Predict the 3D structure of the following.
Amino acid sequence: MTQRATGSFKGWLYGSGVMLLCVWVLLPIGLIGLGAFGGRPAVYQWPKTLMPASLSLDQLAVFF
Amino acid sequence: MAKAQDLIFLSTQLRPIDEAQKVRDVILKGAPKTSYVVDEPSPFTVRMKAEVEANKHTISLVGALHGELQPLLPMGALEPIDDVAASLKDRGIPAGLMDLGKLGTGKQMYIPWMQATYVMVVNKKALPFLPAGADVNALTYQQLAEWGKTMNEKTGQRRLGFPAGPKGLFARFLQGNLYPSYTASMVTEFRSAEAETMWNDFKAVWAQSNPNSTSYDFMQEPLMAGEVLVAWDHIARVKDALQQAPNDYLVVAPPAGPKGRSYMPVIAGLAIAKGAPDRKGAAELIMHLTKPETQLITASEVGFFPVVNATLPANLSPGVKLLAEGVAKTQTAKDAVVALLPVGLGDKGGEFNKVYVDTFQRIVLRNEPVRATLDAQADVMRSIMAATKAPCWAPDKASEGACPVK
Amino acid sequence: MPTSRWLPYLLIAPASVFLAVFFAVPLVQTIVLSFDGGTAGFFGNYQRMLGDLNFNVSLRNTFMLVLTVVPLQMMLAIGMGLMLQKMQRGRDVVLWIWTIPLGVSDLAAGLVWLAILQNTGYLNTFLFHLGVIDGPTAWLNSETPVTLFIAVAVAEIWRSTAVVLVIIVAGLQLIPKEFGEAAEIFGASPWQKLTRVTLPMLKPSLQSALILRTVLAFEVFAAVYAIGGRNIPVLVGEAYVWQRDNQNYSVAAAYAVLIMVISLAATAVYLRLLREKPEARA
């Protein structure tokens, strides 16, 4: 392997490490954010879909 | 938001946000201007005590379970309301219930507000797996275990469910349904031979119960999810499932043991706080809440049943109708035994519940020997009874002084 | 001048009064309460605590969580800090993303992970689509203590690594570049540079991070409660149950005092182990 190839492999590894950690932090928040619009039925929906099957804004009424 | 001049109605019942909203929007419609405030039982007691000790009163009307109102009496937080009792004589509240409201004094301390009990909810999908010869309306605990076993074998999952989570009412099942059905007692026969049999029988029931039971608080959720097919709980905590799909469920009396089919009636009462800023308004509010119309609205909106003489209308929503039938079946079962909510334990009510839950945890979850566990837990029970000097309540026979543990 | 002599005391007075009123007084009250046993004698509440069937379990769970979570998140945070240090572009954005969990309350973090890990959660859905499981599978009950423990540990690591990261990033910025460059000139490998230059220089930050995280980890509660209910008892959870459900404030106070003693002991251990020798200080 040339010096350059090792360098770019390292850079790739490094970049994917950073990306992976970003996903680790953001994914759970994203999932619950979407889940919040599903209402009660979404809690027990099986199998889960990324967008809950029962979309509604009712849950947000709690804040008003 | 609460305005300073509004009458404050503090309640430990109808706490979940949608129920509280129904109280505010529907049940209190036409009543004097009220801010309805809810609190959990333990902070509720603390708040009442704080108001007495600080002698600064904000709360006028209090709504809570019989057992939660009881400790307020020695604190001096309750106002006698014989005048209110006299003015609603024609409402037809049964004398026995009114007597409970005297809390053992000569004066009326609270007015019965609404009642409920604990029942079993059965998803009709479970019916084909009933053991041969078993009647779903008259089950025994052995049959329940057998039923659960068949469901497990046929569906591949343990389908019985109990609310043994942190906010579940599982302690009430042990005290009000299981113990009296086997021992005709809640306290005195705590470590009896019958209790030993009972725990061994119940182990078989638990073995067929969903392992998530120790996380369930309200059984309506696992019922709606289909995770559980047969569940025990307070009627208000299964109502949503029945409302959502009334055709899918039956509501039946809890199982029976050798000593009968025990059930625990739950009575919530309305009391006026001593030093209430608005005693007159609070009395008017009691009159409003015990009107037959309001009582029927309460039943259909939140699933607690009338204490007054009011016939449930035929157009009741199907879910509430199921509940009403279930309650009736429970109360009128041929072998029915009444077990009352613990009385006279004051602030030891929590530790009393802990005795039952700890015993369950040790015997059933940790598989400790039944005899030794019962003996050890009976000591704890004795010390609670000695500390509170609470005399026995039904189904235990009346005692002189503290209720004994044999 | 008298003003200048009194000025420092005057300046710390508000903070001291605040601490005295809102920390010292309740602390003393708690200690008094924990010895107020009524009929049970001076140590009655402690005896009840020690004799309770969940005491040993909760003590063990708490220590195991601390011993698992804190080292893992220290390593993770150091790794993240070093990555950030090397980064040329987008450093601020990545730091911002990585510190988002700082703003999430512990209960909310527990609920987030509950949504992922429960029976009908996202993890099971994912495993289901992979064909690993054939229906909702329970990971979080008393019959699956290992997966439950892992779930709680993951949630705790997710939630609270950001605190350590912030301290470490600040510490790394304080290390002069010349040290690293000098090491490179003398032919140190990256590993040697890390263990001989960066980590020793980072010691004060590591010490603060360790003390902060360990003390907080002994107080772990809300995330555990959200994910496992009482299936995985921990010390603070037991204090909560004694206070709220059992309504025995004295035993709850005994738990509180025990947690405080453990936290103080852990702090003392760290201060001793990571003490900088006076002669090492230039």
